[in-house]
Write a structure and sequence with these properties.
Layout: H1 3-15, H2 35-42
């Protein structure tokens, strides 16, 4: 996983106003198989 992608996500949250809320943020590796492909292989 590219460390700069994670750093960009953290910097984005840091740039938000103090009253903003980020409850969920998903960071996925770009070369990771999609969840749909993974679940299809499991069947």
């Amino acid at each position: 996983m590219d460390v700069s992608a994670v750093a960009n996500a953290i910097l984005y949250m840091d740039s938000l106003p103090l009253d903003a809320n980020v409850q969920f943020m998903t960071v996925m590796a770009t070369k990771m198989p999609s969840l749909v492909e993974f679940s299809a292989q499991a069947r």
